[in-house]
Automatic annotation (TrEMBL):
Subunit record text: Component of the lipopolysaccharide transport and assembly complex.
Keywords: Cell outer membrane, Membrane, Signal
InterPro entries: LipoPS_assembly_LptD (IPR020889), LptD (IPR050218), LptD_C (IPR007543)
Name of this protein: LPS-assembly protein LptD
Matches recorded under Gene3D superfamilies: Lipopolysaccharide (LPS) transport protein A like domain (2.60.450.10)
Gene from which the chain derives: lptD
Length: 743
């Protein structure tokens, strides 16, 4: 439920909770259509009138019209079986399937309507009022004075009142009341002696209820969230929405718990001419358990909380600025109060300029670690990060040249500091041969300068580099050839594309260079044919190599298959900079590939793998599958990294896990859902792992109801890991959202 979907409750004495039951108000559609719009604008002093027959009583000065009577004046339109107009008193009485539409688009239906001559003010019996946004008000009787409707013994719903077959159905949510006042100008409905009903069952009596009807919304209480957890006990979160202006709002949410002190959450949002920004935070006063192994590490109560702010502004068609601030007072707060599962919080600032041929970025970022055992002093702070690129066309050979300038400064409060700057140029040219081969030529040149200190504070030795100033020159060249072969097969079309790449780079001084952005390398299908297979700039693969593989694609009616597989051969005999276990540390690399299968919109399967070149053992095995429709589906995921890298050379450890989730639509509106994550890692794969080969991480199960205006659900979740005061255990969340309220 959004901030514009607000309900305002007024607190009255408890005796006022016993509201009078509303009579059987008919919210279903009426058999008469709304009066159509008139073809031409009617002058304010004239009435447009049509009927099958018209009788005029000259003595009484009464006009009686019968048979599909239509009357229009000052934007108000009336349709009825019979209309009696007393010209002396100015009273207009409409009878039989009456429908009246005002200039705002609201339509009132009734059996008998008495109106003034301007068709605005009057009284209606057996009223149905259909607002322009689709909401409905039904009442035994009602009257209108100016822009205010007053209804007696009424019912209101923003929900659909017919099913998919057009048959009447009970709305999932409605409000019945002794008296209802609808103000068109204020776009607000006020209920007196109200009762809120779900699925026809009264669940909440309210003495006074106020509800906005327009898109602008209004201040008031939002629907609360109810949660039960082992750590915090029973929780009620009751948001209150403030509409500060058409482009600014504020939501304040008190959280009340039975096991801990209350918390206060707030969110401010604003939309400006140039962009938008939001600020969210939460604050409480509580104790927390130490993350150390000391069982007596309980800290005294203190202020705890978090802040999450972000924004983006487009200053002109080229320049923009964006940023975010994400900080928490401690490492367990977000998980303890079920706000986020993130284990690192990143704050950023970035000024960008983008046009057709150039890109400029001046950025900075800082990271707060929430991981157990990871030192905050070792986490980097990058400021500034400068990147400039410009593309120009090659006037000689017809290729394209990209020039790049880059600078980075990384500091740590208790770790290694690094500064880097480089200037580079890359030339790319693509040609097609007469036989249909695609040939890509690439040349790259770059000059790097580095400075670093405090290298002994970095635990992983290959990441350190040498202290002081270091310089490096890089030159690389590559030729990449593809030969697509297309033809008919199996009743469809298949494409087989052999591919070979030759790349050469002279020997480089990689070891003296600190490694900040090229860590945790693993060979896969995405980087097999890259000119530099490392993920960043600090490491660059040297030597000569040939890389070869094949891409395959098959397209059938409703079925697509895409696959690739490849391997590389290092032709130079120099020692490689890749550590053992990455798949490319010997002359012949491991085999890497990917297979994707899709059957209509029902099955999607992706398999990525790395096979050991010697014994074909799976070193990387990653499977993601989705089966089903948008309403009923199963999602499966599996990952196993079996790299066996020697400890101290990389900080990416081996792991194995399985993920599963799904939803079953048991009826048109009801569904059941669930998910689970299981850690399959054992100590033979990761000596630091505490898992025994089958360790559940998190699971959940629930049911939900969702229609055009109501969402409700109950979710059970279990966490299996303790992190300080974020304890393992069960939690339950009950949620109700009235989606069309205030729209």
């Amino acid at each position: 439920m959004t901030g514009m979907e607000a309900i305002r409750w007024a607190t009255l004495p408890i005796v006022g909770l016993c509201s009078l039951p509303a009579a059987a108000q008919d919210l279903s559609p009426r058999p008469v259509a709304p009066p159509p719009e008139t073809g031409a604008e009617v002058p304010a002093d004239q009435i447009e009138f049509s009927a099958a027959t018209v009788e005029y009583d000259q003595n009484a000065d009464v006009i009686t019209a019968s048979g599909d009577v239509r009357v229009a004046r000052e934007g108000n339109r009336l349709r009825a079986d019979r209309v009696i107009w007393n010209r002396r008193s100015g009273e207009v009485r409409a009878e039989g399937d009456v429908a009246i539409t005002n200039p705002a688009g609201d339509t009132a239906y009734g059996d008998s309507v008495v109106l003034a001559e301007d068709l605005r003010d009057g009284a209606v019996a057996n009223l149905l009022l259909v607002l322009d946004n689709g909401s409905r008000l039904a009442a035994e009787s009602g009257n209108r004075e100016g822009a205010v409707f007053t209804l007696s013994r009424a019912a209101y719903t923003p929900c659909a009142v017919v099913d998919a077959n057009g048959c009447p159905r009970e709305p999932s949510f409605k409000v019945t009341a002794r008296r209802v006042v609808y103000d068109e100008n204020r776009e607000r409905i006020r209920f007196e002696g109200a009762t809120v009903s779900l699925f026809g069952l009264p669940i909440l009596p309210l003495p006074v209820l106020s509800q906005p009807t327009g898109s602008g919304g209004g201040p008031g209480l939002l629907v609360p969230d109810v949660r039960i957890s082992r750590v915090n006990g029973f929780e009620v979160a009751q948001p209150y929405y403030f509409k500060l202006s058409p482009n600014r709002d504020l939501t304040i949410t008190p959280h009340i718990y039975t096991s801990v002190l209350p918390a206060l959450e707030g969110q401010y949002r604003a939309l400006t001419e140039d962009g938008a920004y939001q600020l969210r935070g939460m604050l409480t006063y509580s104790g927390r358990e130490s993350l150390s192994l000391d069982p007596t590490g309980q800290e005294r109560d203190r202020l705890r909380g978090f802040v999450d702010a972000s924004g983006r502004f487009q200053l002109d068609p080229n320049w923009s600025i964006s940023g975010s601030i994400r900080r928490a007072t401690d490492r367990t707060f977000l998980r303890r109060y079920d706000i986020s599962r993130d284990d690192r919080l990143r704050s950023t600032i970035n000024v960008e300029r983008i046009d057709a041929d150039s890109y400029f970025s001046l950025a900075g970022w800082a990271v707060q670690t929430l991981r157990v055992g990871e030192s905050q002093g070792q986490t980097p702070i990058a400021l500034p990060v400068v990147d400039y690129r410009r593309r120009i066309n090659d006037p000689l050979l017809g290729g394209r040249v990209e020039l790049q300038l880059n600078s980075l400064a990384i500091g740590r409060t208790d770790g290694q500091d690094t500064q880097r700057a480089f200037a580079g140029a890359r030339w790319d040219l693509r040609r097609l041969t007469n036989w249909g081969q695609e040939v890509d030529f690439t040349l790259l040149g770059r000059v790097d300068a580095y400075h670093t200190d405090e290298t002994l504070l970095t635990a992983t030795i290959p990441y350190r580099g040498d202290e002081g100033w270091q310089a490096r020159g890089i030159a690389a060249a590559a030729i990449d050839v593809r030969w697509p072969l297309v033809g008919a097969a199996f009743g469809g079309t298949q494409r087989i594309t052999p591919r070979v790449q030759f790349a050469v780079t002279p020997p480089l001084r990689n070891d003296p260079i600190p490694n900040e952005d090229s860590r945790a390398f693993d060979l896969d299908d995405s980087n097999l044919f890259s000119l530099n297979r490392f993920p960043g700039y600090d490491r660059f693969e040297d030597g000569a190599r040939v890389t070869y593989g094949v891409d395959y694609a098959l397209t059938l009616p409703g079925v697509t298959v895409a696959a690739n597989v490849g391997q590389s051969l290092r032709m130079s005999g120099d020692e490689t900079i890749f550590p053992a276990g990455t798949g490319v540390d010997e002359r012949f690399s491991d085999f890497v590939g990917r297979t994707e299968v899709r059957f209509r919109d029902f099955i999607s399967l992706t398999h990525r793998y790395r096979l050991d070149k010697d014994d074909f053992e799976l070193r990387r095995n990653e499977i993601d599958a989705t089966i089903g429709t948008r309403r009923t589906y199963l999602v499966l995921g599996y990952l196993r990294l079996n790299r066996d890298i020697e400890e101290g050379y990389e900080d990416l450890s081996d792991r194995e896990e399985v993920r599963a989730g799904g939803r079953v639509q048991v009826s048109r509106f009801w569904s059941v859902f669930g998910s689970a994550i299981v850690d399959l890692t054992n100590r033979s794969e990761d000596p630091l792992s505490i898992a025994d080969g089958f360790q559940p991480i998190r699971s959940r199960l629930g049911f939900a109801y969702s229609d055009d205006c109501l969402e409700l659900g109950l979710t059970w979740r279990r966490d299996y890991e303790d992190t300080g005061d974020a304890r393992r255990g069960n939690s339950f969340l009950f949620r109700v959202a009235l989606r069309n309220i205030g729209r």
